[in-house]
């Protein structure tokens, strides 16, 4: 099964189109790129000529591009080429699609795309849904003395938001296979094309296929005179990207949103350009490099990725073994709990902070490496500013009240911390205390009550129940306790009690609960 495309509708293929006025005739020199014919006309020397097509289509009122194929031998001479879309008398939009410094239309057929909702100069109120007249105006008024012959050709025209890619890739070249369908002579949508192995797009792309794979490809969203300022790359299907690069050229942006996709993963490769990246729950990023102001939301797992000069990364999943390099915002990452950040390196740009901690007061574990962020001025790594961010802190706590304990393991860099008013205590040398509970048959025991008493120095170290893995754990900041009492109990089993020394090392205690016949 191959990929298929939808999303673009034909306005006219210009094969003997009868609605033209102000032109010569169809296909005067057998010159066409789609189908068998095109519309041709002569623009005289030192003059401006208008080709007018009366033909109706209901364009979207919210989003879309209009594409048309055109060839002009006047590129060395014309001042500009304008497209006009009219919905009623004197209600139209004008788009400059080529000019004397940007010869976007030349002797070979090229597809021009205009954003008919957000771009163009409006006269009256252009109503997209009742589009009925098209004009192409070539200003050749300063050409000088040139030969007057047929010199312009116009071919197929389409409208829509871009491409929805369905089906299944036959190989690992998703975007190449899609561009090949676009470029078929019978289609020529003018949205995607392959140039020297690089795939270009001037429309949105929605990945709706059942098994779409891209390996080692480069997809570039182009910056055109009147095209989209922000593209959409999203979908509802299943896609796997391996070492593929997605690039927003020039000053445009790409919003990369996979939250509605059935399945998505991206391994290696890169995403560059100003835009929003939103990765959904159950989806993974591994080894991807993000560059240039990407605003990112991670709902599942990002591992081994790098963000260079990007915007805030909102982490509702996990960020592991990643590099956040010179984030240009005042917030590099935003999380509700520090457990979502493990073994990451933060490289400061000299302002702002590495982590915006939005959770409630309590105890948090810090396991990241912070490179270049202020290690504090008081000698103990603690910097409490009483409500304002003073500069380059590692962690800023948004809470205005309560007490926060930041437990720092032996291998993590001591962070500097500020808050919006909450009390902060950074504790170095924290150890992890963990209980793994199983029964006599080696099956995990869920919901067993676990309690660790720190010889009454504090009321308790741990007081919770085991999770779906039969585990319960805590990061404990006082590793010098000589002994503590560990208790595990659940109805139907005999209680487990053991004294354990906490000597500054992580401890995992396996517990076996024995059935108690008197409780069954």
Mean pLDDT: 89
The profile of the biggest β sheet is: 16 strands, mixed
- N-end to C-end Cα span: 59 Å
Shape descriptor: elongated
**Beta-strand level of the residues, as a percent range?**
over 45%
Number of domains: 3
Structural class: mainly beta
Overall radius of gyration: 32 Å
What is the topological layout?
Blueprint: E1 3-12, E2 20-21, E3 25-26, E4 39-41, E5 47-57, E6 65-72, E7 80-88, E8 91-99, E9 110-115, E10 121-123, E11 131-140, E12 152-167, H1 174-182, E13 192-195, E14 198-201, E15 204-207, E16 212-215, E17 218-221, E18 230-235, E19 238-242, E20 245-248, E21 253-257, E22 263-267, E23 270-272, E24 275-279, E25 284-286, E26 289-291, E27 294-298, E28 301-303, E29 306-308, E30 313-315, E31 318-320, E32 323-325, E33 331-335, E34 341-342, E35 345-347, E36 353-357, E37 362-366, E38 369-371, E39 395-397, E40 403-408, E41 417-419, E42 423-428, E43 431-439, E44 449-453, E45 462-465, E46 471-476, E47 484-489, E48 496-500, E49 507-513
Parallel strand pairs: 12-15, 14-17, 15-18, 16-19, 17-20, 18-21, 19-22, 20-23, 21-24, 22-25, 23-26, 24-27, 25-28, 26-29, 27-30, 28-31, 29-32, 30-33, 31-34, 32-35, 33-36, 35-38, 36-39, 37-40, 39-41, 40-42, 43-49
Antiparallel strand pairs: 1-12, 2-5, 3-4, 4-12, 5-11, 6-9, 6-12, 7-8, 7-11, 8-10, 13-14, 43-46, 44-45, 44-47, 47-48
What do you see in this structure?
The protein is mostly beta strands and 520 residues long. The longest helix has 9 residues, at 174-182. The chain contains one helix and 49 strands. The relative contact order is 0.07. 2% of the residues lie in helices and 48% in strands. The chain starts with a strand and ends in a 7-residue tail after the last strand. Strand 13 (192-195) and strand 14 (198-201) form a beta hairpin. The protein has three domains: 3-158, Sandwich (Jelly Rolls); 224-428; 431-519, Carboxypeptidase-like, regulatory domain (Immunoglobulin-like). The strands form seven sheets. It has a 16-stranded mixed β-sheet that branches. Strands 13-14-17-20-23-26-29-32-35-38 form a ten-stranded mixed β-sheet, covered by helices on one side. A seven-stranded parallel β-sheet has the order 16-19-22-25-28-31-34, with no helix packed on it.
């Amino acid at each position: 099964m191959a990929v298929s495309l939808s999303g673009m509708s034909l306005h006219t293929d210009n094969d003997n189109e009868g609605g033209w006025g102000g032109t010569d005739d169809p296909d005067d020199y057998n010159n066409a790129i789609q189908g068998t014919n095109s519309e041709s006309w002569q623009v005289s020397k030192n003059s401006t000529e208008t080709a007018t097509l009366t033909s109706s289509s209901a364009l979207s009122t919210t989003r879309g591009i209009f594409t048309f194929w055109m060839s002009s031998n006047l590129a060395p001479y014309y001042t500009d080429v304008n497209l006009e879309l009219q919905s009623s008398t004197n209600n139209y939009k004008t788009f400059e699609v080529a000019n004397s410094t940007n010869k976007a239309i030349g002797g070979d057929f090229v597809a021009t795309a205009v954003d008919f909702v957000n771009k163009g100069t409006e006269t009256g109120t252009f109503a997209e849904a009742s589009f009925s007249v098209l004009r192409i105006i070539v200003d050749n008024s300063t050409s000088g003395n040139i030969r007057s012959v047929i010199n312009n050709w116009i071919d197929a025209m389409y409208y829509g938001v871009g491409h929805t890619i369905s089906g299944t890739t036959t190989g690992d070249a998703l975007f190449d296979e899609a561009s090949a369908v676009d470029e078929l002579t019978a289609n020529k949508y003018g949205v995607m094309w392959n140039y020297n192995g690089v795939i270009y797009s001037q429309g949105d792309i929605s990945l709706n296929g059942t098994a779409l794979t891209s390996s080692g490809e480069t997809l570039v969203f182009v910056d055109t005179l009147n095209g989209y300022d922000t593209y959409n790359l999203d979908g509802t299907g299943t896609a796997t990207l391996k070492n593929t690069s997605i690039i927003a050229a020039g000053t445009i942006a790409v919003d990369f949103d996979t939250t509605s996709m059935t399945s998505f993963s991206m391994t290696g490769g890169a995403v560059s350009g100003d835009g929003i990246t939103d990765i959904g729950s159950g989806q993974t990023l591994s080894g991807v490099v993000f560059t240039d102001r990407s605003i990112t939301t991670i709902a599942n797992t990002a591992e081994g990725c790098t963000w260079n000069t990007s915007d805030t990364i909102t982490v509702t999943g996990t960020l592991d073994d990643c590099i956040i390099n010179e984030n240009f915002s005042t917030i590099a990452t935003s999380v509700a709990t520090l457990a979502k950040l493990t073994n990451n390196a933060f490289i400061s740009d000299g302002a702002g902070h590495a982590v915006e901690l939005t959770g409630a007061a309590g105890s948090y574990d810090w396991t990241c490496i912070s490179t270049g962020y202020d290690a504090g001025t008081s000698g103990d790594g603690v910097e409490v500013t009483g409500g304002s961010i003073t500069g380059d802190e590692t962690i800023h706590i948004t809470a205005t009240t309560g007490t926060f304990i930041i437990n720092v393991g032996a291998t993590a860099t001591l962070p500097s911390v500020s808050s919006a008013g909450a009390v902060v205590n950074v504790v170095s040398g924290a150890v992890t205390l963990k209980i793994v509970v199983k029964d006599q048959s080696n099956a995990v025991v869920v919901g067993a009550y676990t309690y660790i008493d720190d010889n009454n120095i504090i009321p308790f170290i741990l007081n919770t129940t085991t999770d779906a893995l039969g585990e319960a754990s805590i990061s404990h900041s006082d590793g010098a306790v000589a002994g503590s009492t560990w208790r595990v109990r659940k109805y139907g089993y005999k209680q487990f009690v053991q004294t354990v020394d906490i000597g500054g090392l992580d401890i995992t205690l396996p517990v076996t609960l024995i059935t108690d016949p008197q409780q069954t």
